[in-house]
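Researcher: Please predict.
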Amino acid sequence: MIVVKVGGGAGIDPTNVVDDVAALHARGERMVLVHGGSDETNRLAAALGHPPRFVTSPSGRVSRYTDRRTLEIFEMVYCGRVNKGIVERLQAAGVDAVGLSGIDGRILEGRRKATVRSVEGDKVKLLRDDHTGTVDRVNDRLLRMLIAAGHLPVLSPPAISEEGVAVNVDGDRAAAAVAIALGAEALVLLSNVPGLLRDLNDEASLVAHVDASDSADAERWARGRMRAKLDGALAAVRGGVARVVLGDARSDGAVRAALAGRGTVVS
């Protein structure tokens, strides 16, 4: 079992992933593909007059502030255009893909955060009316049923809260939760950088391996969105996934390159 998550940042072409996933699926690999769509969501939100707002937590994690209008725009992109675009490409490549969000069948379920802490200047503010949450449970029975029938699930946030309200969740942590629930041998997290870098401005400073039992240095090097990816990778390994690879979605053969160890291997 392999879980692949491709981010939605600037410069990522999903076809690099689709072709690889199709090839792996054709040779009998059982897979789930999780995807993002952040860059396109930002563009659509700005075009609709509701530009994105990002908040930084006291621990330095950056996330999207998701009020109800933002959530609706988020769903348009993630559950609509991006999800169905990937499914269409996989179908054209001969893969019987099924596009789903975490809401469907309560595939991704968890808690909605009552408040979000945001650092603004030298103050920490509490933001309310935010539709963000965590993934605490995965409906792996539904995913296994689809996989056993020969389908390839293509999954995106949002998740569903315990109260039945849609919530924006971190895609990397969601992919990690799916990998743990399915007992995956490998989790591949692809983005628009080669992996974890010691120096954000120097791709040659790639960290080849992170030991999940001794990750203090890696957590110090991780900045911005990479911090969330590293958190997801560490959670997956500590949850029983044999290895996680932080790889580069921009290259041809991105998935197979990552599985061959190109990127940052967390184990």
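Model: Residues 68-92 form the longest helix (25 residues).
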